[in-house]
Amino acid sequence: GQQVMQIPQYQHVQEGEDFTTYCNSSTTLSNIQWYKQRPGGHPVFLIQLVKSGEVKKQKRLTFQFGEAKKNSSLHITATQTTDVGTYFCAGRRSGAGSYQLTFGKGTKLSVIP
Amino acid sequence: EPEVTQTPSHQVTQMGQEVILRCVPISNHLYFYWYRQILGQKVEFLVSFYNNEISEKSEIFDDQFSVERPDGSNFTLKIRSTKLEDSAMYFCASSEAQGAQPQHFGDGTRLSIL
């Protein structure tokens, strides 16, 4: 079945440092979504990428979708303590007639003030 | 902003008992989902539901599980004869459509099987 791998599993950064999490799929994706889950909370939708090579920005967050539509990244510039949480990518397989989202294991971000 | 609401927030049940987890999706959404997250692990898809029937289900969603939309607002997940390994956070989500649509998650129900 489809697998979505995400690295690193954990990341500790000093406040103000940058952070990047990477997501790789075993199959080509029709689109990829990114979610953030605060400790004790539920996944909250951040963004969706659909086009090959797409780059989207939300303030300090930059999201990329690879040319082959099999990988994606989330980069946070100058982290703040409010960025703490687990960031999940979730991909939908291309052309399989399936709308099921497969989540990565997530990257847990800790920001040291 | 409209929210997905889930009840109860925490359910403690003896092994072998049946549980029903309840969800009220966002009112204009047409697609509903259940996910499971074992403590510290990733979010796992269980089932999607549209037009009063299951549209997709994962390998996890076996005969022990069932879903229902008993009225115009509620969406339930029933787990029959619960096992210890069913202990997890169960999230309900909804979306306006399938495909390239964001899913909105509820706060979850923490299910503890004793």
List keywords for this structure.
heterodimer, A: 113 residues, mainly beta, 6-stranded mixed beta sheet, 5-stranded antiparallel beta sheet, 0% helix, 57% strand, globular, B: 114 residues, 7-stranded mixed beta sheet, 4-stranded antiparallel beta sheet
What pattern of helices and strands is seen along the backbone of chain A? EEEEEEEEEEE
Q: Beta-strand percentage of chain A?
A: over 45%
Q: What is the chain-wise order of helices and strands of chain B?
A: EEEEEEEEEEE
Which two chains share the most extensive interface? A-B, 24 and 21 residues
The averaged pLDDT of chain A comes out at 93
Helix content, binned percent of chain A:
under 10%
Could you describe the largest sheet of chain B, including whether it forms a barrel? 7 strands, mixed
Number of strands of chain A: 11
Low-confidence stretches of chain A: none
Mean pLDDT of chain B: 93
Kindly report the oligomeric state of this protein.
Answer: heterodimer
Unreliable spans of chain B: none
Instruction: Give the termini separation of chain B.
Output: 36 Å
Cα-to-Cα separation, first versus last residue of chain A = 41 Å
What's the gyration radius of chain A in Å?
14 Å
Secondary structural class of chain B: mainly beta
Structural class of chain A: mainly beta
How would you describe the overall organization of this protein?
The complex is a heterodimer of chains A (113) and B (114). By secondary structure, chain A is mainly beta. Chain A has strands at 4-7, 10-14, 19-25, 29-37, 44-49, 55-58, 61-65, 71-76, 85-93, 101-103, 107-112. In chain A, strands 2, 4, 5, 9, 10 and 11 form a 6-stranded mixed β-sheet that branches. Chain A has a 5-stranded antiparallel β-sheet with strand order 1-3-8-7-6, with no helix packed on it. Chain A starts with a strand and ends with a strand. The model of chain A has no long low-confidence stretch (mean pLDDT 93). Chain B has 114 residues and is mainly beta. In chain B, 0% of the residues lie in helices and 50% in strands. In chain B, the strands form 2 sheets. In chain B, strands 2, 4, 5, 6, 9, 10 and 11 form a 7-stranded mixed β-sheet that branches. Chain B is globular, with a radius of gyration of 13 Å. The termini of chain B are far apart. The A-B interface holds A 1, 30-31, 33, 35, 41-45, 48, 50, 88, 90, 92, 98-106 and B 41-45, 48, 55-56, 58-59, 91, 98-100, 102-108.
